[in-house]
């Protein structure tokens, strides 16, 4: 999925935009037909060159709409239209200040995925995300799953993300077990178990080779054993959206009702 101003577009929309460009449509025509921003249409079709014949046809269409505009005037107007969607790149000082501001607000340094929109700028300007963190005078985050954290209930968690989940369950007094095996026939364990419910934090989904295969295996086991599987991803934790996950909300509400 592609995203623009919070709205998601399918790959099919992007492919259609490219096909329309190859057929000789202008960026404005593509944007209007697909309901996307002009800047998005330009970005998606970058590198597609129009033939001389296609350019001539475009001029004929434009002459029907605004016959008094010269080619140069149209270019100037097009630049003005596109410039509305272009934002100046942040300076190094601004990039570092964003890290410091995040720390002051949240009490921890950010993960690079929380700065997705500008991560490429950090990599380009500082060589790597960790270099930027060091320049901001902080110690880089340990590699996920390489450092253990202790939750409020004493559970030892494999990552800071798991600690957030564990502390959330403790906060709402939801009884849970850590690293319970899925059964005697497998060495796989669940991050958290609440009766017949399994809660998994899939923090490396789509990032580490073989990890997605593990996700599929756990889904299959849960289906076979009739376990309800609640899947949690980084987007659910940064920022914290655990209260918006349907399965967890039901667990919380059930606990609140039973305690009354």
UniProtKB/TrEMBL annotation:
Alphabetized InterPro entries for the sequence: HNH_repeat, Homeodomain-like_sf
Top-rank lineage group of the source organism: Bacteria
Pfam families: HNH_repeat (PF18780)
Record-linked SUPFAM superfamilies: Homeodomain-like
Name the record gives this protein: Uncharacterized protein
Organism, scientific name: Candidatus Tagabacteria bacterium CG_4_9_14_0_2_um_filter_41_11
């Amino acid at each position: 999925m592609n995203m623009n101003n919070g709205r998601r577009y399918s790959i099919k929309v992007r492919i259609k935009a490219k096909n329309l460009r190859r057929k000789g449509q202008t960026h404005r025509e593509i944007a209007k037909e697909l309901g996307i921003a002009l800047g998005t249409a330009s970005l998606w079709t970058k590198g597609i060159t129009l033939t001389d014949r296609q350019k001539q046809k475009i001029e004929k269409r434009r002459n029907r709409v605004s016959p008094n505009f010269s080619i140069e005037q149209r270019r100037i107007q097009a630049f003005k239209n596109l410039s509305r969607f272009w934002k100046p790149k942040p300076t190094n000082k601004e990039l570092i200040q964003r890290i410091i501001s995040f720390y002051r607000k949240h009490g921890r340094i950010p993960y690079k995925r929380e700065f997705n929109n500008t991560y490429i700028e950090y990599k380009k300007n500082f060589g790597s995300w960790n270099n930027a963190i060091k320049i901001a005078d902080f110690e880089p985050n340990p590699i996920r799953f390489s450092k253990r954290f202790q939750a409020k209930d004493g559970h030892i968690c494999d990552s800071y993300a798991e600690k957030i989940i564990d502390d959330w369950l403790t906060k709402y007094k939801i009884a849970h077990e850590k690293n319970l095996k899925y059964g005697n026939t497998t060495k796989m364990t669940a991050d958290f178990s609440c009766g017949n419910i399994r809660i998994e934090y899939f923090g490396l989904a789509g990032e580490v080779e073989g990890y997605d295969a593990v996700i599929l295996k756990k889904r299959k086991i849960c289906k076979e054993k009739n376990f309800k599987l609640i899947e949690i991803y980084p987007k659910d934790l940064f920022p914290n959206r655990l209260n918006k996950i349907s399965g967890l909300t039901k667990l919380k509400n059930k606990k609140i009702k039973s305690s009354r």
